[in-house]
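Colleagues,

Please find the record for the two-part complex below.
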Amino acid sequence: MGSVDAVISTAGAAAFAPLKELTDAQFELGWNNKFLGQVNLLRVGQRFINKGGVVLFTSGMLASDPIPGSASVSAVNGALNSFVIAASIELGDKLRINVISPIFVKETMEKMGMDSSSGMSAANTAIAYQVALEGQMTGAVIDVRDYASFDEKNVNMEYSR
Amino acid sequence: MKIIIIGASGRIGSKVTEALLAKGHEVIRVGTRSGDIMADYTNEQSVREMFGQAGEFVALISVAGGDSQFKRYADQTDDDFLFGFERKFLSQVRLVRLGEVCARDNASFTLTSGFLSHYPNEASIATGPLNSAVDTFVSNTAPLLQRNIRLNAVSPAPIVEPGQERKGLVTAAQTAERYVDAVEGSFTGKVLRAWGSLPVVYD
């Protein structure tokens, strides 16, 4: 593949289950897949990324806004956020690293037959990635809700800073 | 319901007035040079007199405070900051402070901040921080108000003409929808953004 300027990861699986039913295997899924899977993109991939390049991870709002059943997912998301903050100070100006924290994507909710009024469209979610890619920031945890559109006012109502 | 609109003749204020009248509300237009009541919203005595004339109300909307000094950071003086502070922040805070006793139970106050707090430019440093101050005043003060009185802010961006909506900027009529939401809703302590999906980078 040669060298690249950016690696963007929107991948990662983790298990939802009530706390008292969560198994070791379910915790391990989130840790091995969503957390280590993305972390290893950086660890293994950094020598293929040009100086001044950028790596973007995906965590999720459940880190800070949990729901019942999200304990494992919340923990993994929080770990990713903390990893990015810590990794950035060692990477310095060689490589930027940021993490995007999305909310439920509207189209996914619709596909699942859920009420999507609290979701955010994939297109607007993508703006957060664009900002993290093209900006100068590193070690940033970027909340996609900052990029909700005028029409996505339910998102704005639940979140503004 | 009886609604006082401060700055009713402005670009946004006139659309807010239009929208509320269309919904059958009674609107008292307040302006410096025109309106049902003429008052200088930056002058405490004038504001007291305005409340005396207006009588009990169910909602107050301030679409004032749009003026502040836009200069390069290096050229800003104390006076420039004070100008914005008095107009954008203190005058709107005073409307809530003095207006609370004239407000009915369950009344609402809706103030105006602005998107420069989130999307600064080199000339906005005596404006954006004051928008944040209004936002913070609203979220911190809302829980302190008595008699179920609500307090919210709308954060507008530069408005665009119909058909020109792009880059997350919206028209005056769309911006007015947020003020109507704040009046007719039951929430408090919120900042309603009249913009969105702005791919501008800020760190």
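Strands of chain B lie at 2-6, 26-31, 37-38, 57-62, 103-112, 150-156, 191-194.

Comments are welcome before we finalize the supplementary table.
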